[in-house]
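Filed under: proteins

Residues; backbone shape codes:
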Amino acid sequence: MDEMKKIAVINFKGGVGKTTLTWLLGKIISEVYSVLLIDADAQMSLTQALTLYNGEIDNDFNRWSNASAEKEKTLSHIFNGFVNSDITFSKFNVDEHFIYQNLSDNIHFIPAVNELFSDSVRPFTKRNNGKIMRPIEKFMEQVLMKVQQYKKGNPYRYVIFDCPPAGGPIMVSILHCADVIIIPINPDGFAVAGLRFLLTELKLNILIDKTILPTIFVLMNKAQPSNKIGTYTKETERFSDAAKIVVKRFSETYKHRALFIDKYIPETVAIKRVFKEGLPSYINNDLHNIWKNMEEFI
């Protein structure tokens, strides 16, 4: 049986397109494989994008969400059961109340909930209310083991996380189980400087104890098209070249496989409609090429 691959889409900067990229990759990959999307961000960007219509929550999802909360099957409920080392997590079984399965046959979804905000900022110590806690970095790994047990007959081939911009225990647990980290950046100077910081932070502080290191991909999102079809502005190319240098130096310095993807995702109105509408063929083709470039290294 093929191993389930875990992809974390991250950046500590908001508005870089993490949520859109998570959905685009899910759509592309789901043409061939079964995909599980997980919204781990208390901002609920992916959850809202997939379930809000003209400001109203989709009726089917609303019923499912209420039942999930009533049965204490949300991501926040399970996380708190895990860190408190109580019987809640040990007895927790993945089922249809934990995973929303009505998006499509090949894309299933674990939504975010508001309570994830508290989970991301509340301090955790080795003892919580007098109880010894499980290692937080193991949380998502153990959740996904339960997911695999539930989907034994028809396993997910890929799990894609839409990660929060800030750190926190759930974020750390995702990065510790990830096989792949994708960092979307925008064409500007702050993005390049932030990329340098983020890569170093990942290597020296977050992934320091990880035995098998994830492959890191950096991708230019919201690239500015020029007047000539298929080309981009000088500014986009300049910041792209600067990002390539950052990635190359990181890879050489730390002996960590990190790659800059040469194909860009353009800034276009069509991209903003991806959750409700299809994509133009030229963008769809670019996305398939981006995934093809990544897949050969996964």
